[in-house]
Write the structure tokens for this entry.
Amino acid sequence: MVPSTESESRKLLGRLRDALADDSAGQARLDRITSIIAESMETEVCSIYLFRDADTLELCATEGLRPEAVHQTRMRLGEGLVGRVARLGRIINAADAPSERGFRYMPETGEEIYSSFLGVPIQRLGEKLGVLVVQSKIAREYSDDEVYALEVVAMVLAEMTELGAFVGEGAALSARHQHPVFIRGTIVQEGTAEGQVWLHEPRVVVTNPIAEDPKRETDRLTAAVEKLRVSVDDMLDGALTNDKDQREVLETYRMFAHSRGWLRRMCEDIERGLSAEAAVEKEQSSARARLQKAPDLYMRERLTDLDDLSRRLLRILTGQGSETGAEMPPNPILVARNIGPGELLDYGRSLRGIVLEQGSVGSHAAIVARALAIPLVVHARGITTEALNGDHILVDGEQGNVHLRPEDNIISAFRDKIAMQAKAQERYADLRGMPATTLCGTTVSLAMNAGLMADLPSLQGSGAEGVGLFRTELQFLARSAVPRRADLAALYSRVLDAADGKPVTFRTLDIGSDKVLPYMKRPDEPNPALGWRAIRVALDRKGIMRMQLQALIRAANGRPLRVMFPFVAQLGEFQEARQHLLDEMERERKLGRPLPASLEIGAMLETPSLAFAPRQFFELADFISIGGNDLKQFFFAADRENELVRRRYDTLNVSFLTLIEMIVDRCAEAGTPLSFCGEDAGRPVEAICMAAMGVRTLSMRPASIGPVKHLLRRIDLTEARAVIEKSSESGAQSVRTDVMEWLGRSLSSGGD
């Protein structure tokens, strides 16, 4: 049953529509709106507070408070009842406002005579824009119908604010999407890029939040929901998955789409005067607020499903599909909430940079971005709501900074930085054919990391001596089903062809933790990084491992083959995996297929336990590669995805270097070749310290080879080792400061 007050709600929205249609300036519109709301709701006060910056609200219009307080009264986020409404994103309905916790009296407004307070957040899809307030002298709680009416009005104000209906003088009334924005995110892939925003999912714009004909809008909504339900059913039927967990997720998605309560609430919003599109957005915002407070993590994670369903429904209603007709700019920088590996691979190397609002250091997108050598910043909060297609944007992947619509001085400084980097790259190009031989005569082999065929041209261009790590999981992550053995064999063969005789180390499938195959059941684990992943998955799911090993053997086709098993924690795991590979070699021999000219079987040392493995492990392995990223996080017990702790621990920490030295010594005793692979291998200072500790092969992204080689050729490793030892003996926690000071003296005296 629809409440009788709905007709009054429609009348109020009708009057607001007329006020918004006026040709008045932004301030005049706001003033008129507060007057209409106060009159319609029979309250003495109506006020609108908007954000002037991320932390400050400003009184922008009022009916009932002192006019001179407009644009003068400001409060911090969380300050007073208005600030609490904004910070919490929820309604405060108080009969006796002065007695409420957090109340703050603003003497310049003259509000001391008003007792009751109703504050509603003005927000759009989780983006906070301001607060709408009504107040009365009489002490009373506002009714549910009054609260609901004010929510509907606040939603309309949010849409009109987004469309620029209240632009005027001052920061709080400045035009949206025009001022410069600086966002600090998390570094994933280093590099710098300048370009224009290309939104992966262009925002749907609702231009008609208020409607006159409820029946027409209800019919439009019902038809759109039915179309959405059919598409969701088709998606579920086409999934063809036997994975119980995956089907449960898809069934939950369908449950939301078929929810009668979801449709009923949107229809009620239409009856109160909203358009179908506005009703969808209001329900989406309300659902976000409800689910964000849910104690159940599973329900909170369903926010993504609801957001996706709402976006799909809005695109059906508005006709604004993903393809907007806009042309991708020549220098696109992709902006998205998140993105899958397949979608990112579709863009390929056309992108100059990537900025994600969510994402993680070890996500699928991060893996692809590193493979494509595209600067990537994640955790860029608010970027998808701030950015518009075509906006000028600067991405500094070395600092984790994003400048949207930057000012001229920022642009100038940024371009100077890019020019300096380009000049350095020219200098590094001259070293391409030269060995990384230090002043003391030690030669360090520099290899590159890869994961895509698109990486292989860098083998010649960077001067890399081989591929120290080829990540085979990308071909699995980017597909909706397990790749065929023949397809993998053909790919691995092309990799060896492109390497043109240079060594390639294939790391077997490294999945689990944050790298989850869409077609494989994901176990419910409290700590996935320390759970069922990499070699553990392979040994439990031998079918996939056998198929991949067969593909590698067939790809070699008489050429040398190097295979490395990831995340080995103990000798037994390596022995078992190694035997599987030898068994496949024997099986291929019996089938009469050509075998590799030589076979080297190695392990990635990523767990501290393996550094203390029996001597037999070091003798059995043909080679060992230190996986620096994982080894460091496990050694320091510091999750590299966690910004609160990951920066606390330094690679050049004395304890970590002592571990590296021990691994070097154990490999030397067994005569086993050792390499270091990871982000730190490509950082020049860290690289020379690893070399000084005895590591003679470093594997890194192609762009890092030039800078690392340039520094190695200018220093004496015996001096570097002496500096490290002296620093360690002094009781220093990290040798970085002493090494940097030594480098400064050494390089300045030796010239460039």
About this structure: DSSP finds 28 helices and 23 strands in the chain. Confidence is low (pLDDT under 50) at residues 1-5.
